[in-house]
Amino acid sequence: MSPEEWTYLLVLLISIPIGFLFKKAGPGLKRWGAAAVGLGLTLFTCGPHTLHSLVTILGTWALIQAQPCSCHALALAWTFSYLLFFRALSLLGLPTPTPFTNAVQLLLTLKLVSLASEVQDLHVAQRKEMASGFSKGPSLGLLPDVPSLLETLSYSYCYVGIMTGPFFRYRTYLDWLGQPFPGAVPSLRPLLRRAWPAPLFGLLFLLSSHLFPLEAVREDAFYARPLPARLFYMIPVFFAFRMRFYVAWIAAECGCIAAGFGAYPVAAKARAGGGPTLQCPPPSSPEKAASTEYDYETIRNIDCYGTDFCVRVRDGMRYWNMTVQWWLAQYIYKSAPARSYVFRSAWTMLLSAYWHGLHPGYYLSFLTIPLCLAAEGRLELAFRGRLSPRGQKAWDWVHWFLKMRAYDYMCMGFVLLSLGETLRYWASIYFCIHILALVALGLGLALGGGSPSRWKTASPATSLASGKLREE
Description:
There is one protein chain. This protein has helices at residues 3-23, 27-46, 50-66, 71-87, 99-132, 149-156, 170-177, 188-195, 198-211, 227-259, 286-291, 304-309, 313-318, 322-333, 341-356, 360-366, 369-383, 389-416, 419-428, 432-446; strands at 264-265, 294-295. By secondary structure, it is mainly α. The chain has a two-stranded antiparallel ribbon. Helix 3 runs parallel beside helix 5. The longest helix is centred in the first third of the chain and has 34 residues, at 99-132. It is globular and about 65 Å long. Mean pLDDT is 91; it is low at 466-472. Keywords: Acyltransferase, Endoplasmic reticulum, Membrane, Transferase, Transmembrane, Transmembrane helix. Residues 451-472 are annotated as: Disordered. Its main location: endoplasmic reticulum.
């Protein structure tokens, strides 16, 4: 592990006991205490580069104040433009930010765009209310008012997920500040239930990265190995990649759980990133709060079982970095300048790659996903429904195997980063996933695989195990 990785791990582990300290605190102490801790961590890890986050916050707040009716699009343009400037600093002869500054900037971009969207929704709702002449009462997820500059700063620098996620909306943050009877919200047992696989994943990461180091792929000697060995190598590389993020995101979720952050009644049917989807009145007494069943789906960022064992490429995306996937679906996919599922996915993947960085490997990997989505959608619609139940089961196992190999293949671009090294590795295995996807797409089209709009209901298969995806 690099020194940066040890620092990330330390920040994540420290956030757990800090969460227990804040859990039962009042709204004021939660707001300003959590912001002070987050700002302190930012200053400690980023130093003077903290200025970048402050400029981004001030710019977004100014746009919200100036144009509340259209601030979402303006905030998206502002924050994404600042990302370009932020990543071009070395080309401009300015000091290069630390990796921690980049992490803070990434999460802050998501939060500020979401905040602007929430303010815009509030402004639209208020205008409709004024036009109709009567009040409809509080709407699900709607803000009570436009946050002030200090409130925006406290949300932006809240220590929860400040470097690793999970992403959360301002509404979620407000619900935590005003959480009724926080002592009745369970933390310790959900935390232990969530945390138990993390040490195993950590050991598997250390073992796999030691036995199959990524640096070997950058050496000329690697390409003298036989083709089967080169093909196989991407499997443990992606395995180590998954284990690393499983540990980080589970630890980040545990920090939220310790603070009771993102806890909602099960009846609210909360979604990762978005929060409750149903109105659920808060408990009116400690007794009712104690008898209420809660979950932490709002801040759930990874479904390890779903990621590894779902059948399709499309489903694998949903179980990975779940809060960010919600953000992408809500603010990028829905507003994409196209109606086709594949083209909307390509637009979303393009902006996701840009959000991650400017390395060509990101774009090569993310823009391979729409091809895989088109291929699996067409082929599944053309073939799977014609098979017997036993044949469909066999199909799902083959589909799962190919899905995992596709993610192995795309991961190489994500970790190698450079154009030359990514294409060199893919060429050494003859661009096998690209060719396979093109063949599958052509076959699906030839056999009448249907239109993209039908793919979402083409098959009920999402996992190799039946029933609800389980907690680790």
